[in-house]
Design a protein that fits this description.
The chain is of the alpha+beta class. It contains 15 helices and 23 strands. The strands form six sheets. The protein has a seven-stranded mixed beta sheet, with helices on both faces. Strands 16-15-17-18-19 form a five-stranded mixed beta sheet, with helices on both faces. The chain has a four-stranded mixed beta sheet with strand order 20-21-23-22. Helix 3 packs across helix 7 and helix 14 packs parallel to helix 15. The two termini are about 35 Å apart. The structure holds zinc ion. Zinc ion binds next to loops. It is found in: Cytoplasm. Belongs to the class-II aminoacyl-tRNA synthetase family. ProS type 3 subfamily. Its EC number is 6.1.1.15. Catalyzes the attachment of proline to tRNA(Pro) in a two-step reaction: proline is first activated by ATP to form Pro-AMP and then transferred to the acceptor end of tRNA(Pro).
């Protein structure tokens, strides 16, 4: 077996999606499995992708009035119990600390499954008057949810990285605007940075975040026809404010209860990104998040080596100076073919090949990672040309993800049609729904699909007059899908 074969992906995306995904994550150097089930180790190249997502989102948060803070990893049990829905919602998944050193603790501490219960008391302390509102905090951290499912890097891990935003507002309108602002920023992250179109909607009542008034979501369709909940933004109403006494004195000197929100996006976004764009050659990353945007591969023989390496180094230096994340692969013990495969596996969006012809003509040859398209261009104004090619790569990735989503939303009018359509095609099935959770059960039981969202607008007329399952009057349109 040659080195090349050792490196490559051996399973197929279309036929063995699970194995293929695990291989891409590991061979693309995104993550490894930790010794404890349910945990992963994020490698530097994986963490670099996370940092790009973080930088974009963090920038938009700060432009829109959010400040970062940090709260403890542990939450006293009595705090967690203050909001009963949170306890009921998360209790089976909470990891508990019972000992500090050899001493048994007087009160158990929960490893945060989410931080409403530790942040809300401080929102209460820091909110005195209407002038303190809105109060917008965010933290970048990890949380732990002890789910007994198979580990799937970035999709299903007991500990995961995320951001959680928590805000308090004087009234419903301000809190609702906040909820939608964050949802729009999640959509923007997917569409403008990750080259993925998403659908925006609301979770059905029975699948809301514990204690929330409304849970809004961005959903992304994976190539295997399953939906991923890509980020959620919750309008919490006054339930948390009542449980934690977040009150303020309004303009008329009256005490009022605040309205709160919370919103989170986790590294599941990375999982969705990897799943969406990567292929049987390995990882594919959009330029905005790739650790290296461009790799320069010199092609030389013994007598051209010195000149070509110099020409290549100049190119890399010029791009680096222009702010492009560029890597010159000048490994002498590897041939160009090996290098091509290696960087394709690692998802570098754009390759620049430099051989004797390119050097003689003052040119470079570009190769686009997603489809292998090869174009020779002048070496003049290289940073601008590279920019154009990176944009072209982004457009190709977006178009392909859009094609996956388009045509994957189908209507159904009966239980049999829902089951048949989802069974055959996957994707989303749009139906009339009475609003009763019981009507989701037969679909869930039969093929493990569920209602992943309903339209954001509560007043929107359902597409069908009748619930596809029970035949009663439809209250809204439901989108059924299998999900991660
Ligand atoms: Zn029904």
């Amino acid at each position: 077996m040659t080195d090349e074969q050792d490196l490559g992906i051996t399973s197929s995306k279309s036929h063995q999606t699970g194995d293929w995904y695990a291989e891409v994550v590991q061979k693309g150097e995104m993550a490894d499995y930790a010794p404890m089930g349910g945990f992963i180790v994020t490698r530097p190249r994986g963490y670099a992708v996370w940092e790009r997502l973080q930088e974009n989102l963090d920038g938009w948060f700060k432009e829109t009035g959010v400040q970062n803070a940090y709260f403890p990893l542990f939450i006293p049990e009595s705090y967690l119990e203050k909001e009963k829905d949170i306890v009921e919602g998360f209790d089976p998944e909470v990891a508990w600390v019972t000992h500090g050193g050899n001493e048994e603790l007087e009160e158990r501490l929960a490893v945060r499954p989410t931080s409403e219960s530790i942040i809300a008391p401080f929102l209460a302390q820091w909110t005195r008057s209407h002038r303190d509102l809105p109060l917008r905090l965010n933290q970048w951290c990890s949380v732990v949810r002890w789910e007994a499912t198979e580990t799937k890097p970035f999709f299903r891990t007991k500990e995961f990285l995320w951001q959680e935003g928590h805000t308090a507002h004087a009234d419903e309108e301000s809190a609702w605007d906040e909820t939608m602002t964050r949802l729009d920023q999640y959509e923007r992250l997917y569409e403008e940075v990750m080259a993925m179109p998403v659908m925006k909607g609301r979770k059905p009542e029975h699948d809301k975040f514990p204690g929330a008034h409304t849970t809004s979501t961005v959903e992304a369709l994976m190539p295997d026809g399953k939906s991923v909940q890509g980020g959620t933004s919750h309008y919490l109403g006054t339930s948390f404010a009542e449980a934690f006494d977040i009150e303020f004195v309004d303009e008329d000197e009256e005490m009022q209860t605040a309205h709160t929100t919370s919103w989170g996006l986790s590294w599941r976004a990375m999982g969705a990104l990897i799943m969406t764009h990567s292929d049987d050659q390995g990882l594919v990353l959009p330029p905005a998040v790739a650790p290296e945007q461009v790799v320069v591969v010199p092609i030389y023989s013994e007598d051209t080596q010195e000149e070509i390496l110099e020409y290549s180094a100049d190119i890399a230096a010029e791009l680096d100076e222009a702010g492009v994340r560029v890597h010159l692969d000048d490994r002498d013990h590897r041939n160009p073919g090996f290098k091509y495969n290696d960087w394709e596996l690692k998802g570098v969006p754009l390759r620049i090949e430099v051989g004797p012809n390119e050097m003689a003509d003052g040119e470079v040859t570009f190769s686009h990672r997603p489809d292998g398209e090869s174009i020779t261009e002048s070496r003049e104004d290289l940073p601008a040309t590279v920019e154009e090619h990176l944009d072209a790569v982004f457009a190709k990735l977006y178009a392909s993800a859009e094609e996956t989503l388009e045509g994957e939303i189908r209507e159904a009018e009966s239980r049999e049609e829902i089951l048949g359509t989802l069974g055959q095609h996957g994707g989303y099935v749009e139906t009339g729904w009475c609003g009763d959770e019981a009507c989701e059960e037969p679909i869930k039981d039969a093929i493990a699909a569920e209602i992943v969202m309903v339209p954001l607008d509560r007043d929107e007329e359902p597409i069908h007059d009748e619930c596809a399952i029970c035949g009663e009057e439809a209250e809204e349109t439901a989108y059924f899908a299998k999900s991660y």
